[in-house]
């Protein structure tokens, strides 16, 4: 039997009710990196209120905005909330730097992806995030062991295509769990 470390890169974390951190209530987080040094992820179902990609582009770029000015911006997590990330389909690669996370998913954090999105030459599917969720060594594993999170496979349709408010339930359904059956409180026999 091998004692390989847990690697959740490219997986989804699904917040359990009552996990104790309101910032992650009903969140679904795509894990972009996970190793013995810690983990990083992006919430894929928490839209930033009243903020659109066109607003971000207006501040950063000169010239016309994107063809889809209504594309929303998500709260990626509580760490470095002024830093932007684009989680996207893997057919696109920045000329500067793109991290291929797993088949179907890539991450770019350079300005050129926003320029490409504005020009209509960006990735086919994308979510713009501000901030990220981060865990130190062993912290995520501990939170999972304390039933703060469930894990499931990340599929493009769930991450990119579903409405934000449906992603949490869909992620739970993907592992055979009915969200209505979950409780925030522990019971007593």
UniProtKB/TrEMBL annotation:
One Pfam entry name: DUF179
**An annotated GO cellular component:** cytosol
Q: Which InterPro entries match?
A: AlgH-like
Query: What Gene3D superfamilies does the record tag this protein with?
Result: VC0467-like
Give the HAMAP family listed for this entry. UPF0301
Which family does the record assign?
Belongs to the UPF0301 (AlgH) family.
Protein's recorded name: UPF0301 protein H9Q16_10920
Which lineage is the organism of this entry classified under, starting from the top rank? Bacteria, Pseudomonadati, Pseudomonadota, Alphaproteobacteria, Rhodobacterales
